[in-house]
Amino acid sequence: MMKTEEYADAAKKQIDKLAADIEKFQATAEESFDHLRKEYEKRIKEIATKYEKEKGDLGKRREEIGKEIDWFRTASGKAVEELKTGTDAAIAEMKDAAARARRELRKDS
After folding, report:
1. What is the C-alpha to C-alpha distance for residues 83 and 70, in angstroms, rounded to an integer?
2. Rg (CA), the chain
3. What pTM was computed for the model?
4. Domain containing 24: what range?
5. Is the confidence at residue 1, as pLDDT, over 60?
6. Any idea of the CA torsion for 19, 24, 25, 27, to the nearest 10 degrees?
7. How far apart are CA 89 and CA 54, in angstroms?
8. Which pLDDT tens digit goes with each residue over 78-91?
């Protein structure tokens, strides 16, 4: 049978080993967390860049459409029909771009 002192020493060794294992696990978990945080920050920047580009593109298209609408108010005949076609296409393009941006943001969130 083990003496009390021997038992205490054996228990301490086991506890020390468990403590070392826990420290290794914590270090690994912290490294993984740091890696994930860096990846997350990278993706956020990528998404923000895409968003800003889409927003800028949509703003430009909005200005173009605004000019077309102003011109449309003073146009007549065949020009009006051509303008309607172009305006409808531009509006559809803006809707598609907005939908793509929404999908991208949902996908990445």
Report:
1. 11
2. 32
3. 0.45
4. 4-108
5. no
6. 120
7. 17
8. 777 877 888 888 88
